Amino acid sequence: MSLAWLGVMPFLLFALLFLVLPTMQIIVGSFRNAAGEFTLDNIVNLFQPSIMAAYWISIRISVASALLGCLVGFLMAWAMVLGGLPGWLRSPLLTFSGVASNFAGIPLAFAFLATFGRLGLVTLILRDWFGINIYAMGFNILSFGGLTLTYLFFQIPLTILIMTPALDGMRREWREAASILGASPFQYWRMVALPILWPSLLGTFALLFANAFGAVATAYALTGSSLSIVPILLFAQIRGDVLQDPHLGYALAFGMIVITGIANFIYIWLRARSERWMK
């Protein structure tokens, strides 16, 4: 073997210890009972109404945050790359996006409670200055809408980071050719630009879906057990519930692996298709 492999050995070791082996343990544990015997009971128990409801609300939150993240993030990336905004905005926006896309967990939950909680800064400003009581209107940070709003903090920046290179790859010659042939700006975007960007947009949506579906620290720190989503239900089965069943927790994690794996496969496949257009 070449000595160049030594440079990548730390990564391979890290991936083996913290990704491959834990995943294999989860898969094997999903098909075992407390005595270590093979069983399908854990998989069958996933179809309980309470567990199916937890998967359903997790999917809804992931879809909602992914859709809104794609829409807002794409518009921001378009405004930065093709919308004529000052060039000096690009570097600060991308720097912030790189930081915000990795900002999650307890700090993010605290930040949103301090901002949109019942005594949060924005809540009090809207109430005292503008007479708008968002909680009287039905908003609740510890709910489906509140968690979706919180997830947007890292979903939008992630979309900006992904879509900026795709928009940079849009060649000026394509717009000029469409204009020469008599196409309006709307026709150019509908018939040329969006078909080219569509795989990137769908791939970004799939990645954002997987990103939100697997988030646990932010949801647990923000809502506790008041919102029964799969990561919180999994945490209760492994660590905190008095009726804990670690092997059912393994099965819950196995279901999450399947769903996020499908989403990531779609992202990789669509990303590869979009990159062929950019070459």
Automatic annotation (TrEMBL):
Biological process per Gene Ontology, one example term: transmembrane transport
Subcellular location, record wording: Cell membrane
Domain of life: Bacteria
GO cellular component term of the entry, any: plasma membrane
Transmembrane segments: 53-81, 93-114, 134-167, 188-209, 215-236, 248-270
Domain ABC transmembrane type-1 stretches: 55-267
Name of one Pfam family that matches: BPD_transp_1
Name of the molecule in the record: Putative spermidine/putrescine transport system permease protein
